[in-house]
């Protein structure tokens, strides 16, 4: 690391320019090789540079430009850097060496097998939340903690450091219910049913959800096809005061901001770390003000948690960390073998939710059943039902229309309810042979839905017509592709036809 | 990781364009958001993309452009990507998903504490050398192996995988001497003396050196001020056949290419790993065809090896790995307290070397002494001197002009000898008080030399006038700054005046 020279012979200022380069959230600065600041400050490609504007500073990684699309008196910003600084056109920023990143010493100590102390976790997470770590440094921290190298106390300290580094919502006295799904199952849109069921029974459930990161739809994406989700803290508070609940996008609230930053390197590295997973989940929940959290944990070979042993280990860790941080946790292991509901994609998933709420004949029973189980657990946790009686209560609230009325109430409070969009371009994908639907590959289905345009195109995705155990005839539709344009439809179809493992049909052996 | 769809509905081709963006060696691809390939292939920011051109393929990280400096039918390349593909203007490249990176499984296994097997090391290093790892993935591998997590056998296997992944120079029968300095001491330009001394005694010493990575000058930078160093393999061979030695830049030969790639992430992470250091050093030497290697290991608080215990541990590992790979190793711990010679910077270091070779009155005795010690060790290893008699032989060869004649011979064979350039802008930096020169901070001096323009400006750097233990009067020159322009001179001077710790003068206590 460079250390910051403790002087500045002349303030180094350059005109900021938005280059329109999406570096996937890493703030990147572009300076011309002939830029006076580059040579006077001794910056070179890959240097970390502190950019200051009107009292705000960010740290970015430098790319040195020799091309002519950037002038020597300009400092070009990547989209992430531009968002963080939000300059006005023509603004001049100050460029200097960032202070030495002392907390990297703690990362090195962890690499060397020493424990991450509470103070170390606070220092590292504070610097990460402030955007002071480069992607390489983030990758080193993630790797140093992966492979189950965090013990219980380290996980507790990391979780605490993570929620302390951001905002924390407070809801006053009383219970605040929350739920989280560990993920990996497309279409698992139970949240939009659980929240109205639980709230209709009188429990408070302010739910902040994420948009899709790698999946074809996040809860916020699906909910957004029915009502606005991009609310600020004051609006969220009003919705919850009025209805007892909300289903909003968490991005407008700075809850556990280090988590969002760590996720951007955890994803391409695909390094599983139970300690980091627990810290990620629970720090968000504590920051959101929850007192009771139900963890929906789908277990299956193509889900995130792949075995019962992994599920048991993760459950123990969640309970232990929750206990240390005064958060009541209940874990519900669920079937992670196949998608839940029929739709995969924002609008198609919202359509399934509406069908269940409205109680129509075609409503997916698996989605309704799973939502009632989960809501039942929360009702029991919150003292609204005796042990074992929660599910029945949830079913009753769903059947008699109370959940549907509560859902409409929430949508209206969030800004008004709307119908989900419907795709103009659809195409059925037929079975290549007659036989038994033996298996469904969640990852391949997710990829097909994304190729069809989900989640960006809200109406795009997959409508499943079969589940494992069904018998199909050759040529019978396995699923229908939904797309926003003929081109993406054709592309997703081509791909789907080459992926027979997505929905595996085996010939009848009898 | 994305898996590669096993089809391609239409080959995805775009016109390549050199954008002139230096991303510090990571190959980066820029595509416009509206580019048809982006949407049809499902690429998004941070996707890894395989770029194919005329049978050659590289893998690059995608940045998505929304600005207007790139057209939708263009694929912009960073400098590193452009170098690797070396396209002609207007060339069209094929863009597709790279094959799944199976070797990442071995990295994950190492993260989880399992051993890196020989097959795993071959697979990982093969993919790294082929440029298939992103910087994030490289950082994960480096971190997983750091903290002394590689045992002896893993280090041997890693070393073997590294030299096998590139070219290997072969020199026929007989001894091939080499040396390596572990680094951290500015101005330690002994190689340019050791090679002619050793070669003058009849030992073969084909020396490939590096350019500066973080220092104000590498051996290749200093040598280049006296003779061409950028020779291809055939030229190198001719020089060695004619003179028995060479001092060239190793960059033109693909020796242990994974090492160069790993270094680009090790540097910003600053994670010390003795296993990786040994694999890095020895894989380069074996690839260069050496049979006997002397390791110059400066030990000192601001050198790379900071304590005698570290030095002992590193020595043991070097010997053990060398023995396993049939390489004879000798380690020479040297004083790492202060710079060697007077000059810091390519031309100033070359000037010191010339002074020693020519035997002038002002030649730095510390540089001459150290070079003779190291050369003596090599002469003993090569059987040219009895144990303990090598240093005296080296001194004789230096004193009687044989080394100087051999050096001139080498320079002529490499393309012709020249005088090093002299800076037009110089300025003395005076002592702020009278007293004893107590300590010299190698890192601060290196930074001042770099601010003055070294190594890019060959004549730039620092000329030291004092060594620890000297007494100085207030106002007496501690060193002279050399620069290529008045601006950089003023800048480096400003900085130097604020860094009294660079050369620490303590007042006389008597």
Describe the fold and architecture.
The structure is a homodimer of 510-residue chains. The first copy, chain A, is globular, with a radius of gyration of 25 Å. In chain A, helix 11 (274-287) packs across helix 12. The longest helix of chain A is centred in the middle third of the chain and has 17 residues, at 308-324. Chain A has helices spanning 36-41, 79-85, 104-111, 118-129, 135-145, 152-164, 191-200, 219-224, 233-243, 257-269, 274-287, 308-324, 346-358, 365-381, 390-399, 402-414, 442-451, 486-497; strands spanning 13-18, 21-22, 28-32, 48-53, 56-65, 74-77, 92-96, 177-181, 205-209, 245-249, 292-299, 328-335, 343-344, 425-430, 435-440, 461-464, 471-472, 477-483, 503-506. Chain A is 40% helix and 20% strand. Chain A starts with 12 loop residues before the first strand and ends with a strand. The first copy, chain A, has four domains: 13-96, Barwin-like endoglucanases, CATH 2.40.40.20; 104-164, Transferase, Pyrimidine Nucleoside Phosphorylase, Chain A, domain 3; 177-252 and 288-414, Nucleoside phosphorylase/phosphoribosyltransferase catalytic domain (Pyrimidine Nucleoside Phosphorylase, Chain A, domain 2, 3-Layer(aba) Sandwich), CATH 3.40.1030.10; 425-506, Alpha-Beta Complex (Aldehyde Oxidoreductase, domain 3). In chain A, the strands form five sheets. Chain A has a six-stranded mixed β-barrel with strand order 1-6-3-5-4-7. In chain A, strands 13-16-18-14 form a four-stranded antiparallel beta sheet. In chain A, a hairpin with a 2-residue loop joins strand 4 (48-53) and strand 5. The model of chain A is unreliable at 1-10 (pLDDT under 50). Chain A has 510 residues and is of the alpha/beta class. The interface between A and B is large, with 61 and 62 residues. Strand 5 (56-65) of chain A pairs antiparallel with strand 2 (21-22) of chain B. Chains A, B: Residues 436-503 form the Pyrimidine nucleoside phosphorylase C-terminal domain. Chains A, B: Keywords: Glycosyltransferase, Transferase. Chains A, B: One of its GO terms (cellular component) is cytosol. Chains A, B: It comes from Caenimonas sedimenti. Chains A, B: Belongs to the thymidine/pyrimidine-nucleoside phosphorylase family. Type 2 subfamily.
């Amino acid at each position: 690391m460079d250390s910051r020279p403790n002087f500045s012979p002349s303030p180094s200022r350059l005109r900021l320019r938005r280059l329109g380069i999406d570096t996937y959230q890493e703030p990147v600065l572009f300076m011309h090789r002939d830029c006076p600041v580059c040579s006077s400050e001794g910056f070179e490609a890959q240097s970390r540079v502190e950019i200051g504007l009107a009292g705000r500073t960010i740290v970015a990684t430098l790319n040195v430009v020799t091309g002519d699309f950037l002038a020597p008196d300009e400092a070009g910003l990547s989209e992430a850097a531009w968002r963080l600084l939000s300059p006005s056109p023509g603004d001049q920023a100050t460029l200097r060496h960032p202070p030495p990143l002392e907390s990297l010493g703690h990362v090195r100590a962890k690499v060397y097998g020493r424990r991450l102390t509470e103070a170390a976790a606070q220092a590292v997470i504070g610097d990460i939340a402030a955007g002071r770590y480069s992607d390489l440094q983030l990758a080193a921290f993630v790797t140093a903690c992966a492979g189950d190298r965090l013990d219980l106390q380290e996980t507790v300290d990391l979780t605490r450091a993570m929620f302390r580094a951001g905002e924390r919502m407070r809801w006053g006295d009383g219970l605040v219910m929350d739920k989280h799904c560990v993920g990996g199952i497309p279409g698992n849109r139970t949240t939009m049913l659980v929240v109205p069921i639980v709230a209709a029974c009188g429990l408070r459930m302010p739910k902040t959800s994420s948009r899709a990161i790698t999946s074809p739809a996040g809860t916020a994406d699906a909910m957004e096809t029915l009502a606005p989700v991009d609310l600020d803290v004051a609006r969220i508070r009003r919705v919850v005061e009025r209805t007892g609940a909300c289903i909003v996008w968490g991005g407008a609230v700075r809850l556990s901001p280090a988590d969002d930053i760590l996720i951007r390197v955890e994803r391409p590295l695909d390094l599983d770390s139970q300690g980091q997973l627990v810290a990620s989940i629970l720090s968000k929940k504590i920051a959101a003000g929850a007192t009771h959290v139900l963890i929906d944990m789908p277990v299956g070979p193509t889900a995130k948690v792949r075995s019962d042993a992994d599920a048991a280990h993760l459950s123990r860790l969640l309970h232990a960390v929750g206990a240390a941080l005064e958060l009541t946790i209940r874990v519900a292991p669920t079937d992670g073998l196949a998608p839940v509901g029929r739709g995969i994609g924002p609008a198609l998933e919202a359509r399934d939710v509406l069908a269940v709420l409205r109680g129509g004949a075609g409503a997916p029973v698996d989605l309704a059943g799973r939502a009632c189980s989960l809501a039942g657990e929360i009702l029991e946790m919150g003292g609204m039902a005796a042990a074992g009686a929660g599910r029945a209560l949830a079913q009753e609230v769903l059947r008699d229309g109370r959940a549907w009325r509560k859902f409409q109430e929430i949508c209206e409070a969030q800004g008004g309810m709307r119908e989900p969009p419907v795709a103009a371009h659809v195409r059925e994908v037929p079975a290549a042979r007659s036989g038994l639907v033996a298996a469904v590959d969640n990852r391949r289905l997710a990829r097909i839905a994304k190729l069809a345009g989900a989640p960006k195109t809200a109406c795009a995705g997959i409508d499943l017509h079969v589940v494992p155990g069904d018998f199909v005839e050759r040529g019978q539709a396995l699923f229908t592709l939904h797309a926003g344009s003929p081109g993406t439809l054709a592309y997703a179809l081509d791909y789907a036809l080459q992926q027979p493992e997505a929905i595996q049909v085996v010939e009848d052996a009898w």
